[in-house]
Amino acid sequence: MSAQPTIYLVTGGGRGIGFSLVQALSTRPNTVVYAGVRSFPPGADSDLGRLAAQSPTVVLPIKLTSGSIEDNHAAAAAIKGKFGMLHCVIACAGVSSGLSSVLSATPSQMRSDFETNSISPLVLFQALAPLLLATHAASPGSASPKFVAISSQRGQITDCMAYTFDSYGCSKAALNYLIKKMDVEHPQIISFPIHPGSVKTEMGHAGVAALSVKLEDIGGISAEESAAGILSVIDKATKESQGGRFCTWEGEQLPF
Ligand SMILES: NC(=O)c1ccc[n+]([C@@H]2O[C@H](COP(=O)([O-])OP(=O)(O)OC[C@H]3O[C@@H](n4cnc5c(N)ncnc54)[C@H](OP(=O)(O)O)[C@@H]3O)[C@@H](O)[C@H]2O)c1
Known about the structure:
- The structure is a single chain.
- With 256 residues, the chain is an alpha/beta fold.
- The protein has helices at residues 16-26, 47-54, 69-82, 107-138, 167-185, 202-209, 223-236, 239-242, and strands spanning 6-10, 31-37, 59-63, 88-91, 146-150, 190-195, 246-248, 253-254.
- An 8-stranded mixed β-sheet has the order 3-2-1-4-5-6-7-8, with helices on both faces.
- Helix 3 packs parallel to helix 4 and helix 4 packs parallel to helix 5 (167-185).
- It is globular.
- The structure holds NADP nicotinamide-adenine-dinucleotide phosphate (NAP).
């Protein structure tokens, strides 16, 4: 009988950092990775469509529109039916409605960023926590299940003067608070937010273009590098070392 696989779920798994996380996880032995996408099924000619076709028992695309209670609970039911448990969730889907100021930020910018970046990870956790807790209950002495959120340094309050105001930063600050509270309320689950670096993705390029800067000129990293760093931090994380703490993809601890 083969050993129980380690089961991951990555949201925003169709492109950017999320896809690189799925791709890196798919190379690990005895691992299954659910790739959450809102546009389901992924096209046969998309990166995720090709990867899932190459590794159909390892990479499992799943419909997951951020914040949709229906999608999140349907995904949880599908994973429960197949495996009964889940070892690690990486909440990566995110949006940025662009730079603004306290005076110019519109309620719709604030709502959009909070909806995807702050509220959706809450909906995700509420749907999937029973599966993470089932993992812990099945082997309480083993590594604890994990719920990791891809946050941003722009959500720091301590060092917020390093950045201009934007609704995105507000939404990531709210996310950090939420994840820290998850960690406190659920001793069986290791929860923490992580900054992925300045990453050469659609969002990364758009974010610095607004400042007339190029990621290449400020040490921007590839999505593959970011994903490798994030997974290394996740692999090493224990409740004591990382639970409820904020760090970078390189494992450097950050103040909230
Ligand atoms: N790139 C950076 O420099 C950087 C820096 C700090 C933090 N981050 C964070 O890293 C995470 C990934 O960003 P990225 O750079 O990879 O951005 P990206 O390339 O723009 O990808 C964003 C991902 O989020 C998904 N998404 C957005 N809204 C969604 C929704 N309502 N439902 C489901 N999926 C949704 C997108 O899916 P679709 O393909 O369906 O649109 C896509 O997979 C985000 O949380 C971002 O805030 C990025």
